[in-house]
Amino acid sequence: MTKVLVATDKPFASIAVKGIRKVVEEAGFELILLEGYTSQDDFAKAIADTDAVIVRSDKTDKFIIEAGKNLKIIVRAGAGFDNIDLPAATAKGVCVMNTPGQNSNAVAELALGMMVCHARNFFNGKSGSELQDKKIGIHAYGAVGKNVARIAKGFGMEVYAFDPFVKKEDIEKDGVKCLGSVDELYRTCSYVSLHIPSNSQTKLSINYKLLSSMPACAVLVNTARAEVINETDLLKIFGDRKDFVYLSDVEPTNKAEFEANFKGRFFFTPKKMGAQTEEANVNAGIAAATQIVNFLKYGDRSFQLNK
Ligand code: 3PG
Q: Which residue of 6, 59, 86, 200 is surrounded by the most CB atoms within 10 Å?
């Protein structure tokens, strides 16, 4: 029987697993669950005789892909696919897909949620500040960036965006001001929300030059990836500027240094939480299961990443 593995170090909500199971079993396939596993060896064992796998941020490298002797398809239930070794999958003839947009509202709500909590001093009784009339720069206007814009407008923020891959008119039709360069975005906006993927072009790209140009009371919000930040530069800015704040859904490597020296000027979730809602789990999980069924039954390659 065709086997579909769900390998999630950070498990989906049970309602999402139910939905995935329904899609997989109605197609006549078998569902295998590997949740909260603790070693790559366990992942390798579980994938050994499966035809398809659904992952989240789970490290799906050459070792794992090669362990999947019958593997035909990997679907990343989510947007970013920096956890998957695409060349290794391509070399083995394995199709890799993601499920763009399915968890984007959840991530956007977390970005704004962290901003509100920080602006109100995490509700500690002291006077805080408001988001209304503040300028927010959205760095990359994909599905998450678009949702951040929509919610930020609800707060009455002035919304700006920069994305070299999205047409100006597509940004401006959302009532968002499109800026011509990344430098302009950072020097214009006191809040910057990051939505770039992690790849060879973007790694370490958020550097001293960009961060030091931000206006007074700068807040950098990262619900993207830790790797895009040049942490040495970020720590230097923290030393130079007492008004600089970093809110992140991914813990930095130098967390201890932030904790020791910069109390009250940062917030880090203990685990990546942006997409961790029942709704996002249901949307991304069921989309992933449906894409697997459509691929295995009908050869549908929509959302394939390794063409
Ligand atoms: C994504 O790229 O879709 C988000 O970062 C969510 O990742 P997660 O599924 O591991 O929470």
A: 6
